[in-house]
Amino acid sequence: MSPLKNISYSILDLATVRAGETPTETFPKSLALAQQSERLGYKRYWFAEHHNMISVASSATSILIGYVAGGTQTIRVGSGGIMLPNHAPLIIAEQFGTLASLYPNRIDLGLGRAPGTDQVTAMAIRGENVHAVHHFPRDIEKLQLLFSTDNQYSNVRAVPGEGLEIPIWVLGSSMDSARLAAEKGLPYAFASHFAPSYFAQAATYYKQNFKPSKYLDKPYLMACVNVVAANSNDEAEYLATSVKQMFLGVITGKRSLLQPPVDHINQVWDEFEQQGVESMLEYSFIGTPETIKNKLEDFVSKFDINELMATSHIYDHEAGLKSNELFASIFN
Fold first, then answer.
1. Of 1, 143, 227, 247, whose CA is between 20 and 30 Å from 237?
2. ∠316-320-325 over CA atoms, to 5°?
3. With a threshold of 0.85, does the pTM exceed it?
4. Are 242 and 260 within 8 A, CB to CB?
């Protein structure tokens, strides 16, 4: 039996803004992708909190979660993630308590400790709370308390939020997040789509050191990967030049809106830039469904993955919808 037979598959969306467009055009395309994903059996649709990036429009993450949850019926919608040190735990408890009240049993709260931006912008967001990253484990505990009925006699209560079952996930790209998720007995989502270096080590540690909790009785590992699927391998490789250009902007510091694909990617980067981009894209699955399936089966088996989350930065919206459909077909 294929290791993909009983595995869940989900979507991570950054509300990526394409060249020639604005967020006004981007948000309806995210909703259309979410609606298609729901029809295709995807389990979750998550948005990631980023700031001061012209190609990423998911900065007001909670608002986009509500927008997509309101336009769908059954798919779980959540954060991948909320960068908790950017916010007071009470505010997040109230926001997600509101979302969970509006859309019961459909909201996920994935939490990260990074700022989701550059250091100058992080200072603008956090101000004197710039060292909040060190309080991340404690702030998760505060959130858990605010969501619990045990907090009903406290002077500070989350209304709405208190008493609601909102799954909390630990997100990360390092060993620190793996240790935290294992210690607290929480589901763990790793950002292998852009930070592959520590994935193998973190996944192994989490699985081996997981402590059962009232939230989860055994480890649950989600891996986020880049996916570009098409009817031919050549077409998929062509479409994938957009995401490669996006990551080139990350390593060079020359960020731009998501660019159209190019026929000759080697004319865009030099040898060292290519090595940098390809190292970040180690866990990328590009090709036909058959090509992707063979690689995914090895990946899932090797790391004992429970759920896959795909992120796809494809310039053409229709090609993105087609990729989403072809990826889903691998699991069905």
1. 1
2. 150
3. yes
4. yes
